[in-house]
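So, can you check this one?
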Amino acid sequence: VTQIEKNGYPDSVYINAAKIFQGIHTEKNKDRMLVQYGDNSESPMVAFKDEHSRRVSYELAFNALKYQDLLEQILLDSSAYPCYSIPDELTSLLVVMLYDLQDRKFQERKIFDGEELVAVVQEVGDYLYRYITKLAAALARCRIKHDALSIEYFVPEAIGKQEQRASALPLCVWINTFKISLEDAVKDLEMKGLTKVESVSDFDHYTFAVDQHCHDVLVFPSSLREELLNLDLFADCKLLLQ
């Protein structure tokens, strides 16, 4: 379910991301509540196919949360919302799929081989595609109005500061000693071009260190996050990101 060249995700990821977003979206005062999200009294059950599916579902949901105000404004300005054919219970799906649509520069989504299609995802996707020109225009107007080079401008200040702090923290990784030893994990990483150093103070880009207190934990520079998660060591659950 890897997102390849921003071609979109399988339907199950959108469903799970919408369920997560439904539980975490910002509730606004009634006088500011122009977009309705339906009943939020019960936490929906979320079933993931695998660890990667879980990760990208949460990533999509939290990206939608970061830009909730902007996405709602785009829906309203484009007249894509309110939509009487899509009930309030599917508004979360509409928002997360809109985030992904603009992230793909409003290009059509790829259907993955062997993918199990979900009717409501197809319905919402088709609906957004019918409004694609108006949605893109609404985003462009919003960026021009605020002189914003990218949508990063619209990230709330508090979230932006949290992301800056998080991006500077080293990555901690557990060694799954049921599957691989410390020595073999180090050897495998060195074969992939990484260099073992004594501590985080010695970090360069392609480096790592063994935690000084927990010898089944490795520490990496935060800049390596995406490259690490694509290694077979993570795919095989030999290493687990903390």
